[in-house]
């Protein structure tokens, strides 16, 4: 346990150092939130991929594989396709639009294009609510990992992890997070491979085996866990509406999820996305095709685990020697911290740039970077208060939060880059479906299928119909024509 602690401590000390070094380059809000728009392919790829596939990847995915089997691959199959759409289909136009409007946040970009402060306000509120839910999921995963692997109380684990994130996020901003994400991404890939090999050896009684691995897994899962583990719906545990929602999220992560879109904003130019796409796809492929089989084989190696979120911590301690366990634990914590730290900045940007700067510009403009950091600190405090007594399973929290955010921003962003006839009224109607309908339904209606299904139909329908009905009231025609001319020229 001492070896594990030393490795984890040393890694986290490195993150703090990275944050301190990056802080020397912060002179403005653009530097703090977008790294001065200077990120190359490696920084962009690991910032994008490790943020999207983090706590859910390293903790939630193997846990889901342990309990429900092949249903876990639904999102894994879509990863590389999602990166292609993010960087090649949407990403180049998103980057051009960001530079054209000189925007730092997605709500600000929407306001400038549609000339509607209401879009900025609704978008900011959606980000604050939805992404705070995602932050809580990451903090819960972090507390579980610290608790299981370092013999700490859950609350102490959350406090330690959050304290480390706070230091390098508040100091280094986007650039500090991006450099940390590279280290985190490398640890995630390395840790996933190490755990897969060790679990495979334990599953096959001391011999590493690839040939015949999946038939052996299938036989064991069907016999000992249940035949539902061999289906892509987990025997109904994952409704078709949720699978469809996961498909939408995967294909539009760079467009509909602001925490991902800012990585496109921060690229030094649009050509960066070509190599970033390849790096991200390999990252996703390696992690999924090592962690999911490891999670399923864990049923034989560490049977009887009730809480899926405890599978990975328990498995690592069972099959890895102390040094490798320490490296893997650092990888798990890396995954969680990479998402949490970047989410903190995105939510903080909505508070400082989209709300404070909009409604109290004279106050904000006096010391913008100070208020940027104070906003991030506020998000840290609120998330901590909730994470100390969190909701249940990590995977479902993340799916709900990502779906809400995706359905809020997808149609307005699609209209911005592809449809000249999109209007602010249509965009606002579509945003309200995601930002208001889904969370309200979760409290007063039946959650799951009805809410997601209705939202996925209503958002695009309202967007198109209302936009067509309000063409005469458009006041951004010149803005739209200018932007699309820039698209064509670029």
Report on the architecture of this protein:
56% of the residues are buried. This protein has 22 helices and no strands. It has one domain (2-394): Sodium/glucose cotransporter, CATH 1.20.1730. It is mostly helical and 490 residues long. It has helices spanning 2-23, 29-34, 41-52, 55-68, 73-76, 79-101, 106-114, 117-150, 154-203, 213-225, 240-251, 253-256, 258-265, 272-301, 311-319, 322-359, 361-366, 368-387, 394-418, 424-444, 449-469, 477-489.
Please tag this protein with its features.
single chain, 490 residues, mainly alpha, Sodium/glucose cotransporter
Main beta-sheet annotation: none
Count of beta strands: 0
- Supply Rg: 22 Å
Q: Low-confidence parts lasting 5 or more residues at pLDDT below 50?
A: none
Q: What is the CATH homologous superfamily assignment? A: Sodium/glucose cotransporter
- Tally the helices: what do you get? 22
The shape, in one word, is globular
Structural class by SSE content = mainly alpha
Strand content: under 5%
- When the domains are counted, the total is 1
Amino-to-carboxy terminus distance: 55 Å
The CATH topology: Sodium/glucose cotransporter
């Amino acid at each position: 346990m001492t070896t594990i602690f030393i490795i984890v401590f040393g890694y986290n000390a490195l993150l703090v150092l990275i944050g301190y070094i990056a802080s020397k380059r912060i002179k403005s809000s653009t530097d703090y939130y977008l790294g001065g728009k200077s990120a190359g392919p490696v920084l962009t790829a690991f910032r994008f991929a490790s943020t999207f596939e983090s706590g859910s990847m390293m903790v939630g995915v193997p846990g889901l594989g342990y309990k429900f089997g092949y249903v876990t691959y639904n999102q894994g199959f879509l990863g590389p396709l999602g990166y292609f759409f993010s960087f090649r289909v949407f990403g180049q136009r998103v980057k051009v639009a960001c530079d054209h409007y000189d925007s730092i946040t997605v709500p600000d970009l929407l306001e400038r294009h549609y000339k509607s402060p209401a879009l900025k306000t609704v978008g900011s509120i959606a980000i604050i609510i939805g992404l705070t839910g995602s932050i809580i999921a990451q903090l819960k995963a972090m507390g579980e990992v610290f608790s299981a692997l370092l013999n700490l109380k859950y609350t102490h684990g959350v406090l330690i992890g959050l304290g480390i994130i706070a230091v390098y996020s508040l100091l280094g901003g986007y650039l500090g997070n991006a450099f940390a994400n590279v280290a985190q991404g490398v640890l995630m890939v390395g840790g996933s491979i190490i755990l897969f090999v060790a679990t495979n050896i334990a599953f096959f009684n001391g011999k590493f085996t690839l040939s015949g691995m999946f038939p052996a897994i299938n036989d064991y899962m069907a016999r000992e866990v249940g035949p539902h583990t061999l289906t892509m719906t987990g025997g109904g545990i994952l409704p078709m509406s949720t699978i469809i929602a996961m498909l939408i999220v995967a294909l539009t992560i760079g467009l509909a999820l602001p925490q991902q879109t800012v990585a496109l904003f921060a690229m030094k130019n649009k050509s960066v996305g070509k190599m970033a796409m390849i790096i991200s796809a390999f990252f996703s492929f390696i992690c999924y095709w090592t962690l999911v089989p490891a999670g399923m084989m864990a049923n034989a190696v560490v049977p009887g685990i009730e809480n899926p979120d405890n599978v990975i911590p328990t498995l690592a301690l069972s099959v890895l020697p102390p040094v490798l366990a320490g490296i893997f634990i650092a990888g798990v914590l890396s995954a969680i911290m990479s998402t949490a730290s970047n989410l903190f900045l995105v939510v903080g940007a909505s508070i400082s740039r989209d709300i404070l700067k909009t409604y109290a510009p004279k106050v904000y403009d006096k010391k913008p970077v100070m208020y940027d950091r104070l906003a991030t600190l506020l998000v840290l405090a609120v998330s901590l208060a909730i994470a100390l007594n969190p909701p249940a399973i990590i995977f479902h929290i993340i799916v709900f939060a990502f779906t809400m955010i995706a359905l809020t921003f997808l149609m307005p962003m699609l209209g911005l880059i592809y449809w000249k006839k999109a209007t602010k009224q249509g965009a606002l109607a579509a945003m309200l479906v995601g930002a208001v309908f889904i969370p309200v339904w979760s409290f007063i209606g039946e959650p799951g299928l009805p809410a997601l299904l209705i939202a996925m139909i209503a958002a695009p329908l309202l967007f198109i119909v209302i936009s067509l009905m309000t063409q005469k009231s458009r006041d951004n025609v010149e803005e739209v024509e200018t932007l699309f001319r820039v698209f064509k020229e670029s």
